[in-house]
Amino acid sequence: MLLKTMFLKTKTLKLDTGSNIAQLFYLNKKIQKMTNHLKHNKHDYNTYRFLLQKVSKKKHLIKLLIQ
Predict the structure, then answer these.
(1) How confident is the model at residue 54 (pLDDT cuts 50, 70, 90)?
(2) Residue 54 near residue 48, CB atoms below 8 Å
(3) What is the dihedral of CA 55, 33, 65, 16, to 10 degrees?
(4) What is the DSSP letter of 15?
(5) 34: closest CA among 47, 21, 49, 16?
(6) Which of 1, 33, 54, 67 has the most CB atoms within 10 Å of its CB?
């Protein structure tokens, strides 16, 4: 919820996808979808690999925001 409110407050354009907060918001949505998918498909290793990549990218974006 906090990420969504931050995104809506700082959104400059209708299709804002380039700012760090927007990227975090969309990454968070993708991570939630992948996590739900993996709950039902435990042996989908390809999705698990991409999930780890998305989480790593999210950590990197959070570091950039903190600086």
Answers:
(1) very high
(2) no
(3) 140
(4) T
(5) 47
(6) 54
Cα(63)–Cα(13) distance, integer angstroms? 24
Percentage of the chain lying above the pLDDT 90 cut: 52
Amino acid at 18: G
Residue 44 zone, left/alpha/beta (φ > 0; ψ -120 to 50; rest): beta
Q: Which residue has the tokens 């780890």?
A: 52
Q: Which of 40, 38, 60 is nearest to 49 (CA)?
A: 38
Q: Give the integer Cα–Cα distance in Å for 63 and 67.
A: 6
Q: According to the model, what pLDDT value does residue 14 have?
A: 64
